[in-house]
Structure formats: C-alpha cells, structure tokens
Amino acid sequence: MYLEHLTTFINLAETLNFSKTAVNLNISQSSVSQAIASIEKQLGVTLFYRSRKAVSLTPAGQEFYDRVKPWLNEYNKAV
Question: Is the model's pTM score more than 0.90?
Fold first, then answer.
C-alpha cells in the first residue's frame, strides 16, 4: 500500500467528493479512483458507497479512516 494512496483515501474520506480530492491533491479524478480501488483490493473490503450523486464511507471505510488518520498525522509530523 502506497503512502500516496493513503493520503488520497484520507482526503476523499474528508471531502466525500472525487473531484475535490483530485483538485486538492493535484491529480486526475481517475487517479483518485485507481488509488481507492487499489486499497480496496488489497484490503478486500469496500471503503466507500458510490452513487451518481453521493459518496459516503462504509462502516469498514470509517474504521479504516479512524485507524489510518492518526498514523498518517504522526508520520507527517515525523517527516
């Protein structure tokens, strides 16, 4: 799992918007989708509910966010 993918996941979990996440991270929307798909494949769970109008975290996505966010904050402080 790449650090950039985790950063993308955190941003998407906070914005709940693929387009905003892409703009925030200066990457394409398809890169956001690919990063999330990669994490979901590695974990074997769905992290987001997606529809044409909305994005929301699944219970597994919320748990992953709750565990990864503090770790990523500590990592960023250390670096």
Answer: yes
